[in-house]
Automatic annotation (TrEMBL):
PANTHER family found in the cross-reference section: SULFOQUINOVOSYL TRANSFERASE SQD2
Entries under InterPro entries matching the protein: Glyco_trans_4-like_N (IPR028098), Glycosyltransferase_grp1 (IPR050194)
Segments forming a coiled coil: none
GO molecular function, one term: glycosyltransferase activity
Domain Glycosyltransferase subfamily 4-like N-terminal: 22-196
Listed name of the protein: Glycosyltransferase family 4 protein
Native species: Rhizobium quercicola
Length: 387
């Protein structure tokens, strides 16, 4: 959908707030920021200063020219604690100077900052709109535990300071309704999308390994399941196989020890985080063994690049690959994952039969569609239809 002509609508001042500048949330915000800046809107980012490495610093350098309202980084802890008061006060002082029309919070901490600060700004006369996208976040908590009950109750309470909820997939919306309750503010589902340039196929290198894991090195994303499944796939195939694990994270040493203990040290290479398309060229199949997801960008990126994906049936992944896709393994089940990895490796035409139809996939999961849908919502909340 073409951008609205600027002659008919004022540029909006949009601030995205989130905690951790890694993974899917960071990708989502970068895509929205770039698309909306290209339309003439003024965009800024506020996020944590203690998370990320060299790869993320390169991504900040790429997005910074699109940020007319700047980049604010300050310490924001993952867990709730006394330091939140300082983060809240510092964030408020930064954001009030920027006079935003839209405050869009992503993830639990970003949502709390956005809605608290936005409410104070409104008390002081601002008409700022307060949006919240969970991106999983609090929804990963178990409502049967004391901590989970507290976190989910806080989510319900914050609805009073929310002008709209934005879910990135139907799974996330259903989970919110089941754990928090039916949304009281207006709520929309707007799928994540990837850029047109990412729909150019990636051809595997001549020395490409069999399987690739790419993502955060932490148990929730399932690197341990990937290592276990590779060993099981070797036994099914009756021969050694090769793999790569690409990414950074707090449990990297655990997985290094695990692959060595399983006798897979020489057959599973490890490399730090890198651009996804560069990583895709290193393998024949991409494996996404997560224990929990919302709407995983890595699946979108891989399918767009023409790389076949094998993934756990979690979060919004079935909405990408198809509810009945033969590429979906049972969650947290290395044997189920290994069975699919073996079939993908040995059955002629497995990828062509299994992956989504390219044109339909692009129509649903492009960043152009995502950004246009989000801007329509922003305009509506700002009381500006662009007419």
């Amino acid at each position: 959908m073409p951008a609205e002509p600027l002659s008919h609508a004022r540029p909006l001042r949009i601030i995205h707030c989130f905690r951790s500048p890694v993974g899917g949330i960071f990708r989502h915000v970068r895509d929205l920021a770039a698309a909306h800046a290209a339309e003439g809107h003024h965009v800024g980012i506020l996020c944590d200063s203690s998370t990320g490495g060299a790869h993320e610093e390169r991504l900040f350098e790429e997005i910074q020219p699109h940020l007319a309202l700047g980049l604010v980084r300050l310490p924001i802890r993952r867990s709730i604690g006394p330091s939140d008061a300082r983060a809240l006060w510092t964030s408020y002082k930064e954001l009030r100077q920027l006079r935003p029309d839209i405050l869009h919070g992503h993830g639990a901490k970003g949502g709390a900052l956005t809605r608290t600060i936005g409410t104070v700004l409104r008390i002081n006369g601002s008409r700022v709109a307060r949006l919240y996208s969970p991106h999983g976040g609090s929804l990963h908590y178990d409502g049967r535990t004391l901590r989970g009950k507290g976190i989910l109750a806080l989510e319900r309470f914050q609805e009073h300071a929310t002008d709209a909820l934005v879910f990135v997939c139907d799974f996330e919306r259903r989970t919110y309704e089941a754990k928090v309750g039916h949304p009281r503010p207006p709520a929309e589902t707007i799928y994540n999308g990837v850029e047109d340039a990412e729909f150019v196929p990636v051809v595997p290198d001549p020395d490409a390994v069999n399987f690739l894991y790419i993502g955060m090195l932490r148990d929730m994303k399932g690197p341990d399941i990937f290592i276990d499944a590779l060993g099981r796939t070797e036994r099914l195939a009756g021969r050694p196989l090769s793999a790569m694990m690409i990414g950074d994270g707090p449990q990297q040493d655990d997985y290094l020890r695990m692959k060595l203990h399983r006798g897979l040290g020489q057959r599973i290479g490890m490399a730090p985080a890198m651009p996804a398309r560069e990583a895709f060229a290193r393998a024949r199949f991409v494996v996404v063994p997560s224990r929990a997801e919302s709407m995983p960008y890595i699946v979108l990126e891989a399918v767009a690049a023409g790389r076949p994906v094998i993934a756990a049936r979690v979060g919004g992944t079935p909405e990408i690959l198809g509810a009945d896709s033969a590429a979906l393994a049972e969650p947290n089940d290395a044997q189920s994952l290994a069975g699919i990895m073996h079939r993908a490796l040995t059955e002629e035409g497995w990828a062509e039969r299994t992956m989504p139809e390219p044109e339909a996939f692009k129509a649903t999961f492009s960043s152009t569609t995502m950004a246009a849908s989000m801007m329509r919502l922003y305009r509506r909340l700002a009381g500006d239809t662009g007419a």
